[in-house]
Design a protein that fits this description.
The protein is built from 13 helices and 20 strands. With 456 residues, it is an alpha/beta fold.
């Protein structure tokens, strides 16, 4: 591991570690207790597999700061479960992480016979994912190890990108203040805000170094009726305007403002390449993005460095496009959309969160920044690669006419058009993508390791 044993322990003990270590293909929810690494602390989680819901309660014990700790199953699916997290020093800059699992399947000898090999495969996939994620996160934080820890306010912190960002930041020793809209969310690290009024409790943001604004009406959440288009405009444009104005009125505004945008800014470019210098395109989404970014850039007048994170299609089985594609593709009912030649500029959820960390730390990143993989694909390539990773056919294409019938105008702007967007600003800043290639990203996110080649 690219960290000393003490820092490796702290990474596991900080808020967000559980979220970073749960593979995204698993449906796991914290339903009680605390993930704090303290002797006697208990964590209750619910696992879902198909229609089954399994409750699991684990207790921490034998906590030795800088050296390790143990999880024991108090109740759950196994007859016995013990997980030892061991952190072994090597030299001052690195360490060795050992995960030692002792378990007995339920059902005695019959359970071992029926479940043993499946459990072992699941454990191999899970810990392969955990170790890759831990290494990559530690390397990300090592890049900025000489910087003072940040206090970052995040709107949309419960969303797909926001929840991943919050976990990455907190495990790195930063503090996250969640900007929330619902009444009753009154934790110590929350502050209320309203898209129509901005920050309602500015005193709770005193000392905040940066704000990441991710909240807004889902662009792909349904057919673009006139009412829905109005909600999208209002939430993105007016919400950003009011948030920036209220931040500017603070006695000490944040030093940095990062606002989400989208590669829809570029419109339909066909096979044409787009980078941050490419002008905006036409259409509803391009117009919304341009107005949205205009409101965000007003933060510069208050002395805030302002970065516009133009996200591509963010891939995660927990949400977005990939979550929608998985059910039909797992049944062998997936296929290309239209003729499949439209460009898909994508990014893995881990790279999306890591790019935001880069934007928070790197003062040279100002203005538009494309958050996309350096290797965009076509829709045909995307669907063929997903089918291959899942080991399923992709023989059920969706005709363009059917997409238009189902989604109307949204089909033409989001599904049947595209642009080959490249991350010029991130690459110039030295950002290293964890998953530049689509197949490796999907295998990581879905726990599908490449099968070893047969002996010739």
């Amino acid at each position: 591991m690219p960290a000393a044993a003490g820092e490796l322990f702290h990474w596991h003990a900080r808020p967000g570690a559980f979220e970073r270590l749960v593979p995204p293909w698993q449906r796991v929810e914290i339903t009680g207790g605390s993930p704090a690494v303290e002797d006697g602390s208990r964590l209750e989680i619910t696992l879902r597999k198909g229609p089954l819901r399994v409750r699991w309660v684990a207790e921490h014990s034998d906590v030795e700061p800088g050296r390790g700790f143990r999880d024991i199953q108090v109740s759950g699916p196994f007859a016995f479960w013990q997980h030892d997290h061991l952190f072994e020093p090597t030299d001052g800059a690195e360490s060795v992480l050992r995960d030692r699992i002792l378990y007995r399947p339920p059902g005695g000898a019959v359970g071992r016979l029926l479940l043993g090999s499946a459990i072992r495969r699941d454990l191999d996939a899970m810990f392969s994912y955990r170790h890759r994620t831990t290494v990559a996160d530690l390397e990300l934080h090592r890049r900025f190890r000489n910087r003072t820890p940040l206090t970052v306010a995040v709107s949309g912190a419960s969303g797909l990108i926001g929840s991943a960002l919050a976990a990455v930041l907190t495990t790195g020793g930063h503090r996250v203040v969640r900007l929330v809209r619902r009444a009753g969310d009154d934790g110590p690290d929350t502050a209320h805000w309203s898209p129509g009024e901005g920050v309602l409790e500015p005193e709770r943001l005193a000392g905040v170094d940066a704000v990441v604004h991710l909240a807004g009406e889902s662009i792909a959440g349904g057919r673009w009726t006139a009412r829905r288009r109005q909600r999208i405009r209002r939430s993105r444009i007016e919400g950003t305007r009011n948030l920036v104005a209220s931040l500017g009125r603070m006695p000490r505004p944040p030093r940095c403002f990062v606002c989400a945008s989208a590669i829809g800014f570029y419109g339909d470019r066909g096979a044409g390449r787009a980078d941050e210098s490419t002008p905006g395109g036409g259409g509803f989404l391009a117009e919304v993005c341009a107005a949205w970014e205009h409101e965000a850039l007003a933060a510069r007048a208050w002395g805030m460095r302002t970065a516009l994170a133009r996200f591509g299609v963010v891939l995660s089985p927990r949400g977005g496009l990939l979550r929608r594609l998985l059910p039909p593709f797992r049944l062998g009912l997936g296929g290309r959309l239209g003729d499949g030649r439209q460009a898909v500029s994508w990014v893995s959820i881990d790279d999306a969160a890591a790019a935001l960390v880069e934007l928070l730390h790197n003062d040279a990143l100002d203005g538009p920044v494309n958050v996309t993989s350096p290797e965009p694909v076509t829709n045909r390539q995307l669907t063929a690669t997903l089918a291959a990773v899942l080991r399923r056919p992709a023989l059920a294409p969706v005709p363009a006419a059917a997409a238009r019938l189902a989604f109307g105008r949204m089909a033409d702007e989001l599904m049947l058009s595209g642009a080959r967007v490249v991350p010029g600003a991130l690459e110039a800043a030295g950002f290293r993508f964890r998953h530049p290639a689509l197949e490796s990203a999907l295998r990581h996110l879905l726990g599908r390791r490449r099968e070893p080649a047969a002996d010739s």
